[in-house]
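Person: Show me a sequence?

Helper:
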Amino acid sequence: MRIDSGLLRVLVLAGLIGSLPAVPAAERVYKSVDENGHVTFSSQPVPGAARVEPVQIAPPPPPERVRDAASVQDEVERAADQTRIDLDERLRNWQQRLKRAEDEVDRARAALEAAKKQTDADWRHNQSGARYLKQSYYDRVSRAEVELRRAEAALAKVRRDHP
């Protein structure tokens, strides 16, 4: 299943926005680094840390922006659902076309085999008594071969058009 790259970007952005934790504006965050280089983020400086620095965090968005983001996320989810529905429908349609094309190839193969079967009516005798096949036999087989090639080409086209 292929997803449009623009839609994918919107989905990722919406997921990132939805996963951001809300940090109260008044709460401070500190980055503490110990003597081994291990970094800890916390609301209090870590005692005995080799280095401590406050981290500036932007205030949370206003409630209307959060609602707007939720609305965008809903739209993205609806668009993703519709895309899945559309892709499923395209796949079902392709599978039906594939089945019809495969059936047509089977029918054309059977018709060719039937056309190749010789009957007494396909033979002609000349004056010396020798038998030879009539032109109508060769024409019948040739038409069946052309029909089989056409059906096989149509099947190949359907296979190339896989969604």
